[in-house]
Amino acid sequence: MAQEKKKFDQNSEQARAYRREVWESTFVNQGTMVAFPTCFPGMTIPFPLDESHITALTSTPEGSIYGGTSGFQTHLFAAEFHRLGGAVFDLGVVASADRCVAVCLGKAAPAQGRGTPGQGRGNFESSALVAFVNGSGGGRAISCRVQPMRQDLIQEWGFRRPPFEDLGECVRGEPVVHAVAPSQDVMVGATANHVFTLKAESKKIETVGQAQAGGRLAVSSDGSVIGRDGEAHLWRFDLKTAVFRSRAMALPQGRWSGDLTWARDPRTGALFTVDGDGQIFCFTAGEGFSGPLARIPLTPAGPMAVTVDGRMFGFCGEGIAKMFCFDLKSHAVANLGVAVSVIEQRRYGYVFGDAVIGRDGEVIFGEDDNGGHVWLYFPRLVPA
Fold first, then answer.
1. Residues 373 and 74: beta-carbon distance below 8 Å
2. Tens digit of pLDDT for each residue in 277-318?
3. How distant, in Å, are the alpha carbons of 33, 78, 279, 314, 345 from that of 379?
């Protein structure tokens, strides 16, 4: 006689332990997350659902955030969450673009009739936002004068949209993969097969080398820019000498089948990256790559950022990503769970496109999803 199937006891200790584990571990279990909509709440409306995938972010020491979206159309935006801020402002739609891969800040050419840039109204008058976007043709650079929202957004406020200037294709017929700004004077970017520079003030774009790109670029501890070069190497561009070296260094032993993603320690300039098996490696200009330091909970690695207290936060996994924390000193890795916000917006967060560190050490993630939000993560304090 077949053995009779036992009825599941929902009140058993095992069932209670399982429910407790799901409740405590599924969603972010350390710190606080806030999902902020892409608007000035109560005054403007968020970006359309299929135009709100936030795929590029940058930040300033003063706390201003700038970004770009992907989808049916590309929007550029500015955001402010400190002082009397609390808004995401749509700077406008970039014509004939559907993906923003990077945003950088650099010097702007002096505006005619305004005197010396930076005098009287703050140094933002001499800064420019440059977005690298893709569309039906090759990747282009789009520039506009920076307009930070340093005003009272509670009582008296107003916005103006700066005009966009199309600086042209970076490399004819090739999409831009990523770009970084190692200084205020020059930006370095990569297309599918070439590396280029963009001079901030002259707006001159120049190809400096050839490389098969794959993933993001990074600024190393000596100020040079590095990026993926084929399956097993990195190229290097020395900003001081303007010398480009293809296959300048080999990637460490690991599985490097996917695109590279990086996180930079703001204190030391050390870079951290993750291979296809989830192994974390450290890179410095003087010592090269370390051996594997730890392993993240899931693969592939998504956007990551290092806080000023020596912890790296990022997302990993496909579909429904989980956040992890890597301690740079102890090399301990913690699975923090799936992103969820119950403040400002009640929302789950599944896919993220970029990450930066905010003015006070918070981590800011751009949500790469329909109806994407700017997510602010305030980590739990670590006992001294």
1. no
2. 999 999 999 899 999 999 999 999 999 999 999 999 999 999
3. 9, 23, 23, 12, 18
CB of 282 closer than 8 Å to CB of 272: yes
Domains of the chain: 28-378 (2.130.10.10)
- Grade residue 173 by pLDDT with cuts at 50, 70 and 90: very high
For residues 263 and 275, what is the distance between their CA atoms, to the nearest angstrom? Answer: 13
Tokens 């993560």 locate to 377
Answer whether 116's CB lies under 8 Å from 60's CB: no
- The residue among 146 and 367 whose pLDDT is bigger is 367
> Could you give phi then psi for residue 122, rounded to 5 degrees?
90, 155
Give the length of the chain. 384
Predicted pLDDT of residue 117: 36
Distances (CA, A) of 120 to 4, 151, 158, 187, 279: 84, 15, 19, 27, 50
**What is the rounded CA–CA span in Å between residue 86 and residue 108?**
26
Structure tokens at 199: 């001079």
DSSP result, 221-273: TTS-EEEEETTTEEEEEETTTTEEEEEEEEPPSS---S-B-EEE-TTT--EEE
pLDDT band at 22 (very low <50, low <70, confident <90, very high): low
Higher pLDDT, residue 363 or 13: 363
376 close to 345: Cβ distance less than 8 angstroms:
no
What is the reported pTM?
Answer: 0.91
